[in-house]
Design brief:
single chain; about 110 residues; alpha+beta; 2 domains; four-stranded antiparallel beta sheet; 3 helices; 4 strands; about 20% helix
Length: about 110
């Protein structure tokens, strides 16, 4: 019986341009597709990634948004007035506490 590689070994071999036991399979399914597969016979206690032999990888979603200087000028229970420092521009705005929208004052 041939040696079966782990997902990590298989992916490392792929990145090193070396031979592996098989091509790595990396895919994701929508929740509606997984529900359909269960209705069509996929056992309910089986993870679809294991069932189809997908390689296990971890996904991270870092927050890479810019961090701008932010100053609250006036803060009340109903609204707040703020100032943001953006590159080459100072934005002053008003935001009502019960609404998501923002109105720029300048």
């Amino acid at each position: 019986m041939a040696y079966k590689m782990t997902s990590q070994e298989r992916l490392n071999r792929m990145f090193e341009h070396k031979q592996a036991d098989r091509v790595p399979i990396i895919d994701y399914a929508w929740a509606s597709a997984v529900a359909r597969w269960h209705n069509e016979g996929l056992p309910p206690d089986v993870d679809y990634k294991e069932y189809f032999g997908f390689d296990c990888i971890q996904t991270i979603y870092p927050d890479c948004s810019p961090r701008e200087k932010f100053e609250i000028i006036e803060d009340t229970p109903e609204y707040f007035i703020y100032r943001e420092w953006r590159p080459r521009k100072i934005v002053e705005g008003y935001q009502h506490r019960n609404k998501q929208s923002r109105i720029n004052c300048s």
